[in-house]
Amino acid sequence: MMISCKKAALICNKVQYREATFLERLKLKFHLFVCKNCPEFSRQNSRLTSLCQQADLRSLSETDKKKMKEILKEEF
After folding, report:
1. N or C: which end of the chain has fewer CB within 10 A?
2. Dihedral sign, CA of 17, 52, 58, 7?
3. Is 66 exposed, middle or buried (0-12, 13-18, 19+ CB in 10 A)?
4. Which residues, at least 6 apart from 9, have a Cβ–Cβ distance to it below 8 Å?
5. What is the DSSP string of the chain?
6. CB-hemisphere CA count at 13 Å for 74?
């Protein structure tokens, strides 16, 4: 049932976006209990997610991206 640190990091990311299954979350909790390094990664990942949510980051729509590319092509 022990997973690698790499797999734990992937599951940690899935947990942040609520995409992890119950079994994956269980494996991650066990891994975080026995691993020395991964709990810090998990805390930092949670903190980063929290900061991004607080910043209310938005990305450009596909239409706006195309317009920007056209403008840049014209200028250069």
Report:
1. C
2. negative
3. exposed
4. 38, 41
5. ----HHHHHHHHHHHHTT---HHHHHHHHHHHHH-SSHHHHHHHHHHHHHHHHHHT-----HHHHHHHHHHHHHH-
6. 6
Question: What rounded mean pLDDT belongs to the chain?
Answer: 91
For residue 71, pLDDT over 80 is answered with yes
Closest among 62, 45, 61 to 53, alpha carbons compared: 45
- For the chain, the farthest-separated pair of C-alpha atoms sits apart, in whole angstroms, at 57
Is the distance from CB of 45 to CB of 11 less than 8 angstroms? no
The model's pTM is: 0.66
